[in-house]
Amino acid sequence: MASTLPLTDSCRDSWGWNPEDKSPDVFLKGPRNQTAFFHPNWSIGAAGVRGTRPLLQGHCYYWEIEVAPRIYGTSMMVGIGSPKARLHADSFINLIGENNESWGLSHKGTFWHNGDSIVFTQPFLENTLTTVGILFDGRKGTLTFFKDGELLGQASKDLSKPDDDLYPIICSTAAKTEMTLVRARRSFVSLFDRCRNVIATSITKKELVHMLPIPNALKNIILDSM
């Protein structure tokens, strides 16, 4: 991985994949449901899951998806979409980007939106662990991708005023494939947010948070960011 990542002036973001907003062919596991396992037996189409994190306009978000070495099939995708974007189809399609509700990068190196695609990067290597980074800039309305720490470039710049909130999405048509959210960061939203981050990064053990002379509600906020 590259030593310098986007959003250096930022804090850790705590979210996972939403168990209430997914295809029935996606199974979640791990802390905060950060790992998605697609089609555990066989596949008859495309299955996806939306993240619990809304991508707010005016703020920036960066997250990384680790795509397990089993990479094959019609389409394994990472991207973003509105609550209207489908998360299941009984056909082998590029689900993220099938219409104007989502934007997605396929493991074949194509970027999809509104049913159209462009060649964006080289296909992911089979039998090789791949880490995809996604940078959503809600200030400029842009979507940028990275692969294994290398900048791939800006894929879209028309995201400044969508009708609905946007969310991270992943999907796959391939049986027994897996993706894991391994890193998530966001820009600061307030002075309070910066202060919370300073406290959280200054304390080495979670047990010490309970000794702070602050209300329990603030302790829970700090603990959630550690």
Characterization of the model:
By secondary structure, this protein is mainly beta. Helices cover 9% and strands 39% of the residues. A hairpin with a 5-residue loop joins strand 3 and strand 4. It has helices at residues 191-202, 216-224; strands at 11-12, 17-22, 26-29, 35-38, 46-51, 60-67, 76-81, 88-89, 102-106, 110-113, 116-119, 130-137, 142-147, 150-156, 167-172, 177-186. It is globular and about 55 Å long. Strands 1, 3, 4, 6, 12, 13, 14 and 16 form an eight-stranded antiparallel beta sheet that branches. Strands 2, 5, 7, 8, 9, 10, 11 and 15 form an eight-stranded antiparallel beta sheet that branches. The protein has two domains: 11-186, Jelly Rolls; 191-224.
Give a quick rundown of the structure:
By secondary structure, the chain is mainly β.
Helices and strands, with pairings:
Elements: E1 11-12, E2 17-22, E3 26-29, E4 35-38, E5 46-51, E6 60-67, E7 76-81, E8 88-89, E9 102-106, E10 110-113, E11 116-119, E12 130-137, E13 142-147, E14 150-156, E15 167-172, E16 177-186, H1 191-202, H2 216-224
Antiparallel strand pairs: 1-16, 2-5, 3-4, 4-16, 5-8, 5-15, 6-12, 6-16, 7-9, 7-15, 9-10, 10-11, 12-13, 13-14
